[in-house]
Design a protein that fits this description.
Number of strands: 21
Shape: globular
Pfam families: G_glu_transpept
Organism: Saccharibacillus kuerlensis
Helix content: 25-40%
Radius of gyration: 22 Å
Distance between the termini: 21 Å
Mean pLDDT: 94
Largest sheet: 7 strands, antiparallel
Low-confidence stretches: none
Strand content: 15-25%
Protein name: Gamma-glutamyltransferase
Number of helices: 18
Structural class: alpha+beta
Length: about 525
């Protein structure tokens, strides 16, 4: 990419980082180093990504866990591969089953919203297809951190404490007791600089590694998971776990001003980012941080989300084609709806047809964009005793409307928030990027892509740039340091601007770009958290 490596339009703690032999960027320094250790031990970028992802279940448990889902985009030998490791609803979980229990909505916490976790299967599948080292070796750095403990970094301590306060006020009963024993062993969240360890977590990771994740789905870990959830009247069974396999998928893309922007297809929400970029490409690039540019970005995101919320679901249940949603003709019709005032768009009629992110690259040209999550931080609040396995709550994202594409149904995957991104140009890899954070993610992708392609910012500056987040209606949150004159200008356009008290809701991202001529890697990491880049 063409950018000035020293150009930083906003204050930053960092400049971009360069390396040639390898790079791992993620939100926790020890996790980035775990990936780099595996790379130096003879692994490739895929092994490094797996090691980093497993380490993050230990080193950033407030955002992900072994019992979560994952998605990956893998560039190797000149080709981009997609892996969807999101799990389906249990075979016994349905709208009727919940209504029989008197439920009219799917709860956030507890055993009910737990779907089949896909993350361990993602590690095993990536290792088997593209890795160079045994999975057991790749997971060992994570197991050691769980066994020996580590001191909490500042951002993690903040989010951990916040979740502990929420759980203490909202969750009670035997089903949640193991979460408090594991993650609040002294009756509170561990503080910054304090040591925390989880020996059960270490044992589970080693068992997953030794069995290539078979134990998690068809062995002793599966039995412990199913038994505990069944004990507390949940739906996930051993049969649900045994039936699961992740799916290799063809990534979807759009061409944005000469670059191909790649995402995982539905049930992920990467489609929202691509639809928004299709709308925005019809406008001249404009100036960065101008009122007109920001207004168009916000209106495009609202239009794309209206379609995403209406149509994104498990692809087997989508009644609208991807080709139609991504067509230039459809983008033209949606763009025509953007006026000089903030609007409240609904879905169009297209033609027929809580998370961690990491990026890894090696000196051979392999690159990985990987994202993993339990959802809503720690997830369901359910931890399997003696294992450190914190279970996700992805079932909460289903609709209880039987007519909706994303309606809850047995064996169906829900609308999924986590999305890895990747850029190419002319068949050459530029590299992986991602911004975590629930429904902020496609919004973060759009902002990072435009910062890179339209405004020529280097990876660090592209991440540091103040962010906005559309919430619903005309409500838009902006960061505390968002320029006041721009916020006021957007208010005059009809946007309802809210200033966030901190930067926690605006996602945390990583970027690695590769120069195709020299092979030199350039990385940026998130200043909104404990982000770090390990290089070789």
């Amino acid at each position: 990419m063409n950018f000035d490596p020293l150009y930083q339009p906003y204050p930053s703690h960092r400049l971009p980082v360069y390396a040639r032999n390898g790079m791992v960027a993620t939100s926790q320094p020890l996790a980035a180093q775990a990936g780099m250790d595996i790379l130096k031990a003879g692994g490739n970028a895929i092994d490094a990504a797996i090691a980093t992802a497993a380490a993050l279940t230990v080193l950033e448990p407030a955002s992900n866990g072994i019992g979560g889902d994952a998605f990956a985009l893998v560039w190797t030998k000149g080709e981009l591969h997609g892996l969807n490791a999101s799990g389906p609803a249990p075979a016994s979980l349905s709208i009727d089953a919940l209504r029989e229990r008197g439920m009219e909505e799917i709860p956030k916490y507890g055993v009910v919203p737990i779907t089949v976790p896909g993350a361990p299967a993602a590690w095993a599948e990536l290792s088997a297809r593209f890795g160079r080292l045994p999975l057991e070796q790749t997971l060992e750095p994570a197991a050691r951190y769980a066994e020996e403990g580590y001191p909490l970094p500042a951002a993690l301590a903040y989010y951990w404490d916040r979740t502990h306060r929420i759980f203490s006020s909202q969750l009670s009963g035997d089903a949640y007791a193991e979460w408090f024993r594991t993650f609040a062993p002294e009756g509170r969240a561990p503080r910054a600089g304090e040591m925390w360890a989880s020996p059960g977590h270490a044992a589970a990771l080693r068992e997953i590694g030794a069995t290539n994740a078979e134990s998690f789905y068809r062995g002793s870990l599966a039995e412990r998971i199913a038994s505990y959830i069944g004990k507390h009247d949940g739906f996930l069974s051993r049969e649900d776990l045994a039936a699961y396999k992740p799916e290799w998928v063809k990534p979807i893309s759009t061409n944005y001003r000469g670059c191909e922007v790649w995402e995982i297809p539905p049930n992920g929400q990467g489609l929202v980012a691509l639809m928004a970029l299709n709308i925005l490409e019809g406008f001249a690039p404009g100036e960065k941080d101008s009122m007109s540019t920001l207004h168009r970005q916000l209106e495009a995101i609202k239009l794309a989300f209206a379609d995403g919320e209406a149509y994104i679901a498990d692809p087997a249940h989508m009644r609208t084609s991807l080709e139609g949603l991504l067509s230039r003709e459809y983008a033209d019709t949606r763009r025509a709806l953007i006026s000089e005032e903030a609007a409240l768009p609904g879905p169009g009629t297209p033609p027929s047809g809580g998370t961690v992110y990491l990026a890894a690259a090696d000196g051979e040209g392999n690159m990985v964009s990987f994202i993993q999550s339990n959802y809503m931080g720690f997830g369901s609040g359910i931890v399997i005793p003696g294992t450190g396995i914190s279970m996700q709550n992805r079932g909460h994202n289903f609709s209880m409307d039987p007519q909706h594409d994303n309606a809850l149904a047995p064996g169906k995957r829900s609308y999924h928030t986590i999305i890895p991104g990747f850029l190419t140009r002319g068949g050459e890899a530029i590299g992986p990027f991602g911004v975590m954070g629930g429904f902020m993610q496609p919004q973060g992708h759009v902002q990072v892509v435009m910062n890179t392609i339209d405004f020529g910012l280097n990876p660090q500056a592209a991440l540091d740039s103040p962010r906005w987040m559309w919430e619903n209606g005309k409500t838009v949150w902006v960061e505390p340091d968002f320029p006041t004159h721009l916020a006021q200008a957007l208010i005059r356009k009809g946007h309802e601007i809210k200033i966030a008290p901190d930067k926690g809701m605006f996602g945390r991202g990583q970027i690695i770009w590769r120069d195709p001529a020299s092979g030199v890697l350039c990385g940026g990491t998130e200043t909104r958290t404990d982000g770090s880049i390990a290089v070789w």
